[in-house]
């Protein structure tokens, strides 16, 4: 489906909370909403976003209507539907689908919401904030009654620690997840990877590690120590891409 351009393209982006994603146009905002609908909550109804829509995108009328939704205590779906109806950037079927997604999220337990928010933050590289969400999810999860859910939280918390290069903490999380759910093969793989990365980081048995990720990390350390900032940055980017890939694998695995 093709849409005509709505408003103008901003010269400076509006950064969505919890991510490094910059929005430059109404079309990009519409795409962001559709792709992340299950992550959105009432905090998305932000007056700062409305101000951006008015001043940077030149959509004063739409911004005014969105502010009106906020002022009268409207729901998240009221806010989203107002945006999509007035911009024409969403079909009727897409809006119906969004209603179902928002309704489904509203039925989630606090644990599920915290975990989902943590997963969302990991995708955006906000690892420390993600760990806070996972901690809150773990605090509300009875490991005896829901061991697989607790394992999944611990596993993804380990992925977040890996993203911060806190490999010892990551290994502990993966070990805990494995104890709760020994059938999750991805947890075992991540636990071994964290152990190898930890050895590479501390300098012990570095040559024994056959982990490609650990090797790249050691190269990163060497380039950083040698003052090769550009080369170190490139390797860091590769390491983070592989860590994010492992996150996606753990997120969609049956744990």
Short structural description:
By secondary structure, the protein is mostly helical. The chain has twelve helices and two strands. It has a two-stranded antiparallel ribbon.
Features:
255 residues; mainly alpha; two-stranded antiparallel sheet; 2 strands; 67% helix; 2% strand
Overall description:
This protein is mainly alpha-helical and 255 residues long. The chain has twelve helices and two strands; from the N terminus they run ββαααααααααααα. Strands 1-2 form a two-stranded antiparallel ribbon. A hairpin with a 6-residue loop joins strand 1 and strand 2. The longest helix is centred in the last third of the chain and has 24 residues, at 229-252. It starts with 13 loop residues before the first strand and ends with a helix.
**Shape type:** flat
Strand order of the largest sheet: 1-2
> Which series of helices and strands comes N to C?
EEHHHHHHHHHHHH
DSSP, total strands: 2
What fraction of the residues are assigned to beta strands by DSSP? under 5%
- The proportion of residues forming helix, as a percent range, comes to 55-70%
Major beta sheet summary: 2 strands, antiparallel
Helix count, DSSP H or I runs of 4 or more residues: 12
User: What value does the Rg take, in angstroms?
Assistant: 21 Å
What structural category arises from helix and sheet content? mainly alpha
Span from first to last CA? 37 Å
Low-confidence stretches: 202-210, 249-255
């Amino acid at each position: 489906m093709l849409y005509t351009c709505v408003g103008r393209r901003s010269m400076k982006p509006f950064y969505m909370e919890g991510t490094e994603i910059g929005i430059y146009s109404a079309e990009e905002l519409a795409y962001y909403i559709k792709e992340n609908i299950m992550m959105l909550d009432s905090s998305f109804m932000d007056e700062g976003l409305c101000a951006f829509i008015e001043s940077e995108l030149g959509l004063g009328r739409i911004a005014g209507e969105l502010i009106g939704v906020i002022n009268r205590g409207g729901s998240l779906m009221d806010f989203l539907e107002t945006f999509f109806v007035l911009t024409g950037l969403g079909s009727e079927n897409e809006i119906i689908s969004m209603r179902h997604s928002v309704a489904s999220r509203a039925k989630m337990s606090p644990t599920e919401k915290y975990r989902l928010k943590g997963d969302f933050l990991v995708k955006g590289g906000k690892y420390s904030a993600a760990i806070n969400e996972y901690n809150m999810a773990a605090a509300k999860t009875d490991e005896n009654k829901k061991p697989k859910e607790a394992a999944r939280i611990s596993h993804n918390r380990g992925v977040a620690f890996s993203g911060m290069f806190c490999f010892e903490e990551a290994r502990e999380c993966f070990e805990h997840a494995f104890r709760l759910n020994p059938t999750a093969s991805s947890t075992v793989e991540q636990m071994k990877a964290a152990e190898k990365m930890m050895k590479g980081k501390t300098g012990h048995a570095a040559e024994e590690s056959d982990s490609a990720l650990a090797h790249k990390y050691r190269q990163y350390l060497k380039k950083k120590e040698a003052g090769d900032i550009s080369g170190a940055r490139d390797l860091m980017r590769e390491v983070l891409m592989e860590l994010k890939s492992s996150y996606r694998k753990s997120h969609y695995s049956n744990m």
